[in-house]
Amino acid sequence: MKKIILVVLKSILALIAIIAVYMLFVFTLPYFEIPAQKISEPKTVETFILTNGVHTDIVVPVKSKQINWSDDILFKNTTSKSTDYKYLSIGWGDKGFYLDTPTWADLKFSTAFEATFWLSESAMHCTFYKEMKESEDCKRIMLSEKQYAALINFIQKKFDRDKNGKPILIKTDAVYGKDDAFYDAKGSYSFLNTCNTWTNNALKSAGQKAALWTAADFGIFQHYK
């Protein structure tokens, strides 16, 4: 019995230590800034970072000289099926959170557990916009064509694709509005690799300011005040 109690106590202490170290990372590493790369090329591509207070997205122009996102992320996959959108926001995250948890009140323990420990699938959430306005929750970033090409490559690699190389639409009624859709994605969400970690890495890929590491949106947006 004493051995069992000792094992339980050690396990509890180990868990507390892991949580403590994680919280230390959460509240310290975001303040270490990765500076933007210095370039001589003109910055001609308008992009944005967007947050809903918890989750962050990268926003790109639907059409540019380098890519027409609507060739793969189809307008007809949205409820509205409008074709006059100018911007596309793209975010990566846990499939269970996206589809089964419309509000925090709907969060199930199983969903949270699977998302935390690499046990669930991931998804890309794609939302079209007709306009973007800068605010505390939406920051404008100008990229060079070379930087945008790197960002395009980073984003495209995260989509799961069918045999024809097209993103795989998740057929669901759990969309957030008339302008969005979900697609299957690569990788697993975890407490070390969150939706905001993905956005932060996307900024790094494009040579932009970013946190050394972050699990939360504040770790990104504090560098864009």
Q: Using the CA coordinates, give the radius of gyration.
A: 19 Å
Distance between the first and last residues' Cα: 57 Å
Number of strands: 9
Element order: H for helix, E for strand: HEEEEHHEEHEEHEH
Order of strands in the sheet with most strands = 6-2-3-4-5-8-7
Shape: globular
Strand residue percentage: 15-25%
Number of helices: 6
Low confidence ranges: none
Mean pLDDT, rounded to whole units? Answer: 89
Which class do the helix and strand fractions yield?
alpha+beta
Overall helicity: 25-40%
| Main beta-sheet annotation | 7 strands, antiparallel
What this model shows, in words?
The protein has 225 residues and is of the alpha+beta class. Helices cover 30% and strands 21% of the residues. It contains six helices and nine strands; from the N terminus they run αββββααββαββαβα. It has helices at residues 2-28, 95-100, 109-116, 145-156, 195-205, 218-221; strands at 33-34, 45-51, 56-61, 87-94, 122-129, 138-143, 169-170, 180-185, 210-211. The protein has a seven-stranded antiparallel sheet with strand order 6-2-3-4-5-8-7. A two-stranded antiparallel sheet has the order 1-9. The longest helix is centred in the N-terminal third of the chain and has 27 residues, at 2-28. It is globular. The chain starts with a helix and ends with a helix. The chain crosses the membrane at residues 12-32. It comes from Kaistella solincola. This is Urease-associated protein. Pfam families: DUF2459. Keywords: Membrane, Transmembrane, Transmembrane helix.
